[in-house]
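dumping this here so i dont lose it
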């Protein structure tokens, strides 16, 4: 079966050219089926009932935790926290670790290319406590974060370095393992947090090999449901952190005088979790593994290579010029025409792209532009989609030239 045939949305919209996977990827039939089976066949709460469908739900839910362990090569299921998404995972770390361990005068480092969800929580934490907020800039938007930049900002007072694995605008693939080694050589006590939202569906990810302390990602950017994500963190880090939310499921014992909390991961999963979404996430992982992340990477790299070549005479592109050094997305601007206008013309031809600052306003200010158009690829895209995109851009140029 053609991989694209596994995505039912194309049966409903046969002319659709979907180039917005960096915002939300489409869902294969297997993911929808997994969620539907839970809803129809064993819809019950988890970790509570001793009746059969509750036990089935619990088994299905926890099996996803084990699948995620294998997917990112974590050490233990106790290191996998289910969240609502990348944003919640990063905020969890900022509140539960940052507000306990950051003091006035400490330093927090991030980069100009970060998505707001890996920028604003650290900025606000620094402002609230009186820490120093440092933002790594770049001389060349085609280059990843390098040793030179790290050595300029990472010092003895640096408590947190929070970076993206793949930029959601530039497409830059940051060499996380090299960055971790560099940071550790300067300050071994620095907490290193990675936003993997744009990486896990596109690149092989091995958190032990990367060496970071925490890695965060979302289900809806990896062919899974919205409303679910994963925070992976080293066991000792999770054990040292207080709970983020209080309520059911995350306690060991509640008394009038005191409450003791469960061990991770339960400590950070208060209340009824997103059961159907987690089960859908498991199906998404299974789908990605069935295709193979090496095959996904090869496919997207080839599409990016073609797109970079064919777009070069039409638009101004941002980020690495080598397809091997970037993820499956391209952000561009068209000769002074606002990105929203370009996207509107493309939408009229059923070509779905994102236009705006992509939740990366500091980066766009650094680039000196108000907005870009972003085309982002998934396993369902083809060279024909790029041809349609090129024709649509040419049409937009003609429309606004007139």
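and the seq i came up w/
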């Amino acid at each position: 079966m053609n991989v694209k045939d596994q995505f039912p949305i194309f049966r409903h919209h046969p002319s659709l050219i979907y180039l917005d996977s960096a915002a939300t990827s489409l869902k294969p039939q297997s993911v929808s089926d997994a969620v539907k089976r839970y809803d129809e066949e064993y819809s019950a709460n988890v970790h509570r009932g001793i009746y059969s469908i509750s036990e089935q739900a619990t088994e299905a839910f926890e099996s996803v935790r084990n699948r995620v362990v294998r997917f990112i090569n974590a050490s233990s299921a106790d290191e996998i926290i289910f969240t609502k998404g990348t944003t919640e995972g990063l905020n969890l770390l900022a509140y539960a670790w940052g507000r306990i361990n950051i003091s006035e005068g400490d330093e927090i480092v991030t980069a100009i290319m970060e998505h707001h969800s890996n920028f604003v929580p650290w900025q606000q934490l620094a402002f609230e406590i009186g820490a120093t907020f440092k933002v790594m800039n770049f001389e060349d938007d085609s280059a990843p974060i390098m040793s030179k930049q790290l050595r300029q900002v990472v010092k003895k007072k640096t408590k947190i370095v929070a970076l993206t694995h793949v930029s959601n605008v530039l497409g830059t693939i940051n060499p996380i393992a090299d960055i971790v080694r560099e940071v550790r050589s300067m300050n071994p006590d620095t907490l290193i947090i990675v936003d993997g939202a744009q990486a896990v569906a596109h690149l092989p990810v091995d958190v032990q090999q990367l060496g970071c302390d925490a890695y965060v990602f979302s289900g809806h950017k990896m062919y899974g449901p919205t409303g679910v994500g994963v925070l992976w963190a080293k066991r000792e880090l999770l054990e040292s952190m207080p709970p983020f939310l209080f309520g059911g499921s995350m306690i060991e014992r509640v008394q009038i005088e005191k409450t003791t909390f469960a061990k991770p991961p339960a400590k950070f999963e208060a209340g009824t979790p997103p059961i159907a979404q987690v089960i859908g996430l498991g199906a998404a992982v299974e789908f990605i593994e069935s295709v193979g992340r090496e095959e996904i990477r090869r496919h997207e790299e080839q599409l990016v290579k073609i797109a970079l070549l064919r777009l070069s005479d039409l638009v101004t592109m941002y980020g690495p010029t080598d397809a091997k050094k970037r993820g499956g997305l391209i952000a561009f601007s068209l000769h002074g025409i606002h990105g929203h206008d370009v996207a509107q013309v493309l939408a009229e031809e059923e070509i779905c792209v994102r236009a705006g600052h992509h939740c990366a306003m500091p980066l766009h200010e650094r680039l000196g532009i108000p907005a870009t158009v972003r085309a982002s690829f998934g396993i369902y895209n083809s060279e024909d989609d790029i041809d349609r995109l090129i024709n649509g851009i040419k049409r937009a140029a003609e429309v606004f030239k007139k």
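Residues 32-289 form a domain with the Aspartate Aminotransferase; domain 2 fold (CATH 3.40.640.10).
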